[in-house]
Amino acid sequence: MRVGILGGGQLARMLALAGHPLGIESTVLDPGEGVCAGAVATHLVGGYEDADQLGRLSAAADVVTYEFEQVPETATTELARHNTVHPAPQALATGRDRLNEKRLFQELGIPTARFAAVDSYEALEAAVADIGLPAVLKTRTLGYDGKGQAVLRESGDIEPAWNQIGGVPLILEAVVPFGREVSMVAVRGTDGEKRFYPLVENLHREGILKESRPRFGDPLHGTAVDYAGRLLDRLGYVGTIALEMFQEGDRLLANEMAPRVHNSGHWTIEGAEASQFENHLRAVFGLPLGSTEPVGSCFMFNLVGHLPDPASVLAVPGAHPHYYGKAVRPGRKVGHITLRAETESLLEERLEQMRRVLPAD
Amino acid sequence: MRVGILGGGQLARMLALAGHPLGIESTVLDPGEGVCAGAVATHLVGGYEDADQLGRLSAAADVVTYEFEQVPETATTELARHNTVHPAPQALATGRDRLNEKRLFQELGIPTARFAAVDSYEALEAAVADIGLPAVLKTRTLGYDGKGQAVLRESGDIEPAWNQIGGVPLILEAVVPFGREVSMVAVRGTDGEKRFYPLVENLHREGILKESRPRFGDPLHGTAVDYAGRLLDRLGYVGTIALEMFQEGDRLLANEMAPRVHNSGHWTIEGAEASQFENHLRAVFGLPLGSTEPVGSCFMFNLVGHLPDPASVLAVPGAHPHYYGKAVRPGRKVGHITLRAETESLLEERLEQMRRVLPAD
User: Fold this and answer.
1) C-beta atoms of B325 and A20 within 8 A
2) Complex confidence, ipTM
């Protein structure tokens, strides 16, 4: 079995690592030289609109998938002529546009914060009048990890925000006072079977995910399963998806979906019977899905802009570091650490030990 | 961190796969084209006495290790001039010679079956008279998976056995009526710390390992830990080792040691907190050892000479196939499947399911 992956970053790297034991060889297409998936996959160097390299990727793969949602439509359309492409380009198109995404949530009865399309300064003023402040103005496409966003706290912020990111299609979203950020990582197979990992609690700082913790038996797990399930079925989705939500009181408000393996599911490598990476591959190859049952208790730390001393990390029992083989730069995700323990109380002890090793920020 | 590995088969492949998350890049030296570790490591094609390629391996590695014990001494001696080599070539030399190995066991007070050196036909006759029959005649070096061995059941077998493998240094060993074949996989760090996986029960057919099952809480675990510990300390060993033993009544008789990661420890990838591969790498790099505690209950099936249908295997809950990317040939190890469950009784259920998928033999 041969998979082609658009993008050669850490998600592709972890997909390729999950593939080898299953007998799945990976080829990645990525314009960067020496991308981190290249250590475990064949790397074709080229842009996502490079017809020659797309042809090579197509020839090297039975199934094509991707590690990021900003793939140009021309690439997936071209690949879909020759290969099975999962998740379907339609899911990609929806996930690429925050407005379409929110409208889909609405249509499926999945609650969201209030939002409005903003295509002009006048529309922005009208949207603020309607939704109120605080609110966040976002580009409809191409935003990730907090980029392409401006927070509006008072009316004086409207003009600077417009100057900062205006001129492209935007969306204004109400900022809701929320208790938790959570995500549901789920997978759907070619036969429509769906499996759901436990609900995950996430902590972001400056728009970048810092910590994730699966919460087994969370009272909102069922609600999140219901929402993610509706989305998977409507999209006829095949593969792993993540639905990010805010908790407001006892409600979940959908924020965005990621039509791919997701950072908040990295703990599944050690913490679930089959990881999100393995399940994504099982799904796109039409194989039976693996169990999403937890194996002990888990916590994930992202390593952003720094790599701690390996010996100190490995001295903590149950620590499973994952270094991505990337050069360290400020704000760059260069690895993650999953901490696992048989019980929640033992996990708490180990968390304390690990927090002494990791730099505070 | 960069590791060089002599040999590029499935053990090197699984070492390399364990290395990537830890930030350890692997380079393997192996004369075969397209060896299976090549998919996840840099592969230098060359013999183990090829000075140029040994030089390249040395330059590409901080630490050198190996996946098989038949490495020529010239290679390890040359590499040890420039690199840290673990386990030490001395352990390799002992493990390479069945007679020295048995004498070492004896010296350490580790029981063995009766044995005698055989260097001539007359010595063979004398050894048979002393030890009795049945017995097994083995080459002192280069034997593995049942090769270079002849079983002597009656005196008429002596001459044919001599004709078959005589002319090189041999050892005659008593065949003991044993209840179980077991192994102890253990690891020792540069600081002398030792960790032990649970005792494993093994089933061989025609000299090839077919099945392994860790037995948590086995009454002979402590004895096995004691024996393996003596061996590790005497050899000043660094890395993962396996000690294979027979159980005769309530005694363990050491059969042989493997100074490397071992087939009977493959279940540790999913079934222990840190796998034998990860712990070997942690050890040889002088990093803290990982926990050898079990994670649920496990069973391992070797795939020898056949690959079952992937979909049928993956339909069994808790199944973790590991395909080595090798062409299927009769008698060749081409993969293994670890079956994991939270409890022994659930494991039994899954074992029944898996046995229906795997061909009987």
Assistant:
1) yes
2) 0.93
